Structure formats: C-alpha cells, structure tokens
From TrEMBL:
Keywords: Membrane, Transmembrane, Transmembrane helix. The chain crosses the membrane at residues 6-26, 58-76, 88-111, 123-149, 161-179, 191-213. This is Uncharacterized protein.
Amino acid sequence: MNIAGLAAAGGIGFVLLAIVINVVYVRAGLPMPNSGQSLAAVTGSLAAVGDRLKKPSVVAPATWLCTTVFAAGLLAELWRGEPGTDAWALVGFAGVLMQNATFVVVEALRFGMAAAAKNGDPVAGLWALSNVLFGFNQVFLAIALLGFSAAGSGVGFIPSWHAWLGYASAALLFVSSSASPYNADGTNRIAVTGLIGWLGWAAWIVIASVVLLGSS
C-alpha cells in the first residue's frame, strides 16, 4: 500500500476510533469537558469511574498515529512545489500535530483528575484546566482544516464544496475555541458550535480519505 492508501486508512481509522472511544467514555460515566455538570457531580463521576478509564485510553495513541499518518499522506499528495499551496499544506499538517500534542495533555489530565477524586482531593483546578485546554484545542483543528482546504482546492485535489465544508467547520471551531476562557467551570453555552465543527472535521477527513483512496 502506498502513502495515499495508508493516509486514507489512517483518516477513516481515526474517525471510527474517535467515535468508539467517546461512546465508551460516556457509557463508563466519565464527565466530558464542557458538559455543564456541577463540580460535585464531576468529582463523584471521576471517583466512580476508577479503572474503567484505562481500557479505552489504551486505544488513544492509535488515534494520534492515525491522524499523523493521514496528515502526512495528505501533505505528500498536496506538495506540488508551488510556494502558495505548499505553505497552506504545511499549515494543515502543523494543525494536526498541535492537536495531537494538546490532546495528549487532555487525556493525561483525565487520569490526574480521576486519581485526585478517588483520594478525596480537590479537582477544581484540574477540571478548569481540562475544560479550557479542551476548548483551546479546537483552534488546531480549525488550522488543519483551513490549511488543507486551501491547499487542496488550490491544486484541484478536492472539489470546492469540500473546501467550503472545511472553511465552515474551521470557522465554527475557531469561534468555539475563542469562548474557552468563559467555559472553565464546564458550562458552555455554545457547545453545539464546537460539536458541529468537530462533526464537520470528521466528515471532511472521511471525504478526503475517499479522495486519497482514489489517487492511491
């Protein structure tokens, strides 16, 4: 399998794994960032989740591997030796790398909060950090969508409607990210904005993966 095929597999694999992991987290009772739960409810949920947090988190590194392979393969396909579009492709690749690095911290914070809650220690500071960092992370998704959409449409690799899906999703994610300082307590009045943006990001990846398969 060439790099385009591997990238396509990585993109589709990421979306599937992300959905499965989040479903498992919700079923396990893990409080999600910006869920609007009270601090008492969050602390109780974290104390109760215990070792159930470990199993789904084992798969988390695979999602970061998948997105990196997807982004690297897409970068290779978009690299045409043209300064303008090449620069945008690099912007997209950088956004994916920053998203992965930031979400490693978000994932690790979950274990820190669970351990603190289990021992009866305060989790307010860690919960606020997790909420704001989770929100700020959306800007890197926006950067990835902006860069790859601009580069992909610039070289004719993706159709204009696909690029506009990326631009619209990036705008929603950016707005949601900008509101993060006001969501430290977990109450996010525009959470649906970020959710729609993320769903657009996931759809953008799947569509791009199909295009990559066609070029492999």
